[in-house]
Write a structure and sequence with these properties.
Helix content: 25-40%
Radius of gyration: 21 Å
Distance between the termini: 20 Å
Largest sheet: 7 strands, mixed
Order of helices and strands: EHEEHHEEHEEHEHEHEHEHEHEHEHE
Structural class: alpha/beta
Number of helices: 12
Strand content: 25-35%
Shape: globular
Oligomer: single chain
């Protein structure tokens, strides 16, 4: 067997039933390795994987859709093991890369928490030499989401933004992306995470626990100098409904979070989109989006990390066999940055 030929089987965390990660995931020690890649696809030998807070929702959804064994997670770093015949030459075997699989691939069961994964070449970028594999894996989804939030907000240098949930995986990247864009950043987090968020560049940090309800405090402090945009990584409905008190009339409220629960968040989304202003709806533009991976944005992120303009905040790293402990950490909603799984040696 040549050193480019993968083994027939691999370790992979899999699930076949609906439930929480600890209840449904099991470590399969002899899961089939994906077949050689076709077209421009790449077979990647995975080094590290980042866990995502939405995993528990998907684990309650995916088995109902595909009716077979599935592998969780989106984000990874690793080396190209085999490249499809149409893959770009800069993704030759041995190249260190990072990125994310698409939502359709994940829903089809093809996640990244395994020793090998198939991924299209247009969803990845070459890993900068000065960025570690753990950091690269932890940057992909959250970094792309952060950059796209700034773009969708349409803000410009000198504008002021409120970042809600600034100490989480996405929030830490949004704060940095906002500062790279020349924005003034007011960030919310707990007092325990305040120094970390300030260190990422936030101009002011608001302790949401000390100032509860948050929307009342923000209105008191910023009604006379409203924000150009609110970037909400949590999904705090009360913050949006009260936003006319501290968000400019032409400002935009960007939301990517659903931490208030699936049903409550779904109802809020329906209300925010469909309830007209003339009948009492909130008179501020509300945008919700779910980020789709894009290799061009991954490359943009790679450049920013290589230039040390953005860094990944890592909460903790667990070995492959201890992935359930990583999910336990995610489920506390208290992680400072990303929770990473070391799948195998780089």
């Amino acid at each position: 067997m040549s050193n480019l030929t993968p083994p027939p089987t691999m370790r992979a965390w899999t699930f076949t039933a609906r439930g929480t990660p600890r209840n449904v995931l099991s470590l399969n020690l002899a899961y089939p390795v994906p077949p050689p890649p076709a077209g421009s696809n790449l077979l990647v030998r995975v080094s590290h994987v980042a866990l995502n807070p939405g995993s528990h929702f998907l684990m309650n959804l995916i088995p109902s859709i595909i009716g077979r064994t599935a592998i969780p997670e989106l984000d990874f770093s690793g080396h190209v093991q085999l490249a499809g015949p149409a893959a770009p030459s800069h993704f030759a075997p041995g190249t260190a890369i990072f990125g994310s699989v698409s939502a359709p691939a994940l829903v089809a069961g093809g996640g990244t928490l395994a020793e090998y994964v198939i991924v299209p070449a247009d969803l990845v970028a070459v890993k900068p030499a000065n960025v570690g594999f753990a950091e690269a894996a932890g940057s992909s989804s959250v970094g792309q989401t952060a950059l796209n939030m700034i773009k969708k907000a349409g803000v410009k240098a000198g504008d002021r933004v409120l970042v809600n949930g600034a100490s989480g995986g996405v929030g830490t990247m949004v704060v940095q992306a906002a500062k790279v864009s020349g924005l003034e950043v007011v960030a919310t987090c707990s007092d325990a995470n305040a120094e970390m968020v300030k260190g990422l560049g936030a101009d002011r940090v608001v302790d949401y626990r000390a100032h509860d309800p948050l929307q009342v405090y923000v209105a008191k402090e910023y009604s006379s100098r409203p924000f150009d945009a609110v970037l909400d990584t949590v999904g705090t409905q009360a913050l949006y409904e009260n936003s006319p008190r501290y968000l400019k009339a032409n400002g935009v409220y960007i939301n990517i979070g659903a931490y208030e629960g699936a049903w409550r968040s779904a109802w809020a989304m329906l209300k925010n989109i469909c309830y007209p202003r003339v009948l009492g709806g909130t008179p501020r533009k509300w945008v919700f989006f779910s980020n789709a991976p894009d290799g061009k944005v991954v490359k943009e992120l790679a450049d920013l990390m290589e230039e040390k303009k953005i860094k990944v905040v890592i909460d903790s790293i667990f070995d492959m066999k201890d992935a359930l402990q990583g999910y336990d950490r995610i489920m506390t909603h208290r992680a400072q940055g990303k929770v990473i799984i070391k799948v195998q040696e780089d």
